Amino acid sequence: SQQGEEDPQALSIQEGENATMNCSYKTSINNLQWYRQNSGRGLVHLILIRSNEREKHSGRLRVTLDTSKKSSSLLITASRAADTASYFCGWATTDSWGKLQFGAGTQVVVTP
Amino acid sequence: EADIYQTPRYLVIGTGKKITLECSQTMGHDKMYWYQQDPGMELHLIHYSYGVNSTEKGDLSSESTVSRIRTEHFPLTLESARPSHTSQYLCASSELGRNTEAFFGQGTRLTVV
User: Fold this and answer.
1) How far apart are CA A61 and CA B73, in angstroms?
2) Which residue, A47, A59, A63, B17, is most buried by CB atoms nearer than 10 A?
3) Which among B41, B56, B101 has the least Cβ separation from residue A97?
4) CA of A104, closest CA in chain B: separation in Å?
5) Chain A residues closer than 8 Å to B98 by CB
6) Closest CB to B43 among A44, A88, A92
C-alpha cells in the first residue's frame, strides 16, 4: 500500500491464544484506530489511540502506538472463535481535513 | 448498530449503465467518506466530505463522482459503469473533530458485467 501496511496478512490461532498484529503508516497523524470487519460487512470501531498516547486497553484489547516509528500494534488476549474476522488499522491525518486512511488488514482465524 | 445505511446491498449491472450508490446517516455527522475495498481487503479512500457542499477526491483515483447537498446524504455516481468498477463500496461517517471514530455502512457489492 502507498499509505501503510499491516502484518501479518493472515493469522491462524487456537482459542485461548493471543493474537498480535502490526500496522505501519507514513504520514503525521492525530490518532490511530483499529476496526474489525466480519465477512461481507462494514467495519466496526474497536479502539482509538491518540498521537500523544503510547498504550491503551479496552477489555481483551491492548493497543500500542510508537509515533517515532510510525507503527502500532493490536493484541487480542485469550482469543475466542467469535474473534474470527479481519482487523484494520486506520489513521487520521493531521492535514486540515483529517481524513481517515486504512491499511490492508489482517485476517484472523480462531479455531475452537 | 450504527445509523448509517447503504443501498443497494448488491448490484449487478451491465457495462455502460449509469448507477448511483446511496448512503444516508441519521447521526448528524459532518464528515462522510467513500471507500473502495479490493478483493484482497485493502480499503482505498476515493471521496470524502466535511459538510454540505464540501467534497474532495481521495487518494485512489476514481471515475465516480459524489455530491453533498444534505448533511445526511452522500450518494456516489458512476456515469458509465465498467467491469473494472466491480468492487465493494463502503460508506462511513464521523463527527467533525480530530479524534472521532467512524461509523460504517454495510457496504454495496457492485458487479459490472
Assistant:
1) 34
2) A63
3) B56
4) 4
5) 30-31, 92, 98
6) A88
- Structural contact between residues A85 and A71, judged by C-beta atoms closer than 8 angstroms: no
Please give the single-letter amino acid code of residue A99.
K
Question: What's the mean pLDDT in B104-113?
Answer: 96
Secondary structure (H, E, C), A81-96 = HHHCEEEEEEEEECCC
CA-wise closest residue to A102 among B36, B88, B71, B82 = B36
Closest alpha carbon within chain A to B55? A97
Average pLDDT over residues A101-106: 91
Answer yes or no: do A50 and B105 touch at CB < 8 A: no
Which of chain A's residues have a Cβ under 8 Å away from the Cβ of B45? 99-102
pLDDT tens digit sequence for A38-81:
988 899 999 999 999 999 999 999 999 999 999 999 999 999 99
Please answer yes or no on whether B41 and A105 come within 8 Å at the CB atom: yes
**Spatial distance between the Cα atoms of B16 and B83, rounded to a whole number of angstroms:** 9
Residues B29-88 have pLDDT tens digits of 999 999 999 876 789 999 999 999 999 998 887 899 999 999 999 999 999 999 999 999
Q: Cell numbers for B66, please give them.
A: 459524489
Cross-chain Cβ contact B98/A40 below 8 Å: no
At B43 the three-state DSSP class reads strand
